[in-house]
Amino acid sequence: MRGGIVQLPTRGPEQGQASLGIAAQPRSRRERGMAVCDKRSRLLTASMAVALILATAIPVAAGDTGARDVAAAQDALVDEYGGTAKDYDLLAERDLVAGTTPMWSAKFLDAKSGEIRLVYRTSDGKTGGPELRRAAIEEAEAGRSPLDLKASDELLGRATEATSSELLPVAVWMEVDTSEAVAAVIAAHPEIKWEGDRPKAPDLATMRALRRELDEARAAVYAEAAAEIEAAIRPGGG
User: Fold this and answer.
1) Antiparallel, parallel or unpaired: β 127-128 and 116-122
2) Closest listed residue to residue 130, CA positions, set 178, 177, 158, 98
3) Burial group, residue 195, by CB count within 10 angstroms (0-12, 13-18, 19+)
4) Residue 186 domain-assigned?
5) CA-CA distance, 126 to 69, in Å (whole number)?
């Protein structure tokens, strides 16, 4: 007998008993290959599940900032999302500095919803979500000069070492809205079909002329903005 199934007499599943049989070997190389792949797939799935469990179970240690308080963080989550402190399991934690404020940050698993909740806490007892970190960053930036906020590290270094009479070349990024200038060009050419700010001209010469007109309109707006910046910095010796 080759490639068959030997079925031993027994009662069927409908009578509460499992069928007992001896499965035959796959008949072809293709079938044997499929069986091996299926086994490897099941082993890989099981391995990934074990790795996920281990990864989520490893705590990330935080340093000593005086801000760490797991119970207070859980209470804050209860106030915002409900439930009890036991519903929020600590997954990971770390220390960071938001602006100039040292903080303790922690991730909790919400057992009720399955969501990950993020909590920040300062050494003076302030506890909250991401908004607490954003507020600390904004507060720190409010006390800094525009040069500190915008300048590159290289420029800050040069400015620190430079004498009061030395001029430093500086590139300034401008946020300029050219939409009105572009709209004026489009309105001046109702005979042309437009796709956004791109002309659909009937010939190459017209296309180039329209693009040149758009570039000149944008350049005029950029020049006006640059003149305003120059007027603002020149009184200071720039």
Assistant:
1) antiparallel
2) 98
3) exposed
4) yes
5) 11
Q: What is the pTM of this model?
A: 0.42
CA distance 56 to 6: 46
Both 186 and 226 in a single domain?
yes
Domain boundary among 118, 142, 166: 142
Q: Residue 182 domain-assigned?
A: yes
Q: Which domain holds residue 219?
A: 174-236
How confident is the model over 175-205, as pLDDT tens digits? 889 999 999 999 999 999 999 999 998 899 9
Does a structural domain hold residue 38? no
Give dist(CA 105, CA 134) in Å, integer. 13
User: Is residue 185 domain-shared with residue 132, that is, in the same domain?
Assistant: no
- Is beta strand 127-128 parallel, antiparallel or unpaired with respect to 193-195? unpaired
Whether residue 159 lies inside any domain: the answer is no
134 burial type by CB count under 10 A (0-12 exposed, 13-18 middle, 19+ buried) = middle
Rounded CA separation 36/38 (Å): 5
The token pair at 132 is 């607490």
Residue finishing a domain among 119, 142, 165: 142
pLDDT digits (tens, 9 = 90+) for 34-67: 554 555 555 444 444 434 433 333 333 445 567 8
CA atoms within 13 A of residue 9's CA, in its CB half-sphere: 0
Q: Distance between CA 31 and CA 193 in Å, rounded?
A: 62
**Cα dihedral 148/153/157/162 (nearest 10):** -70
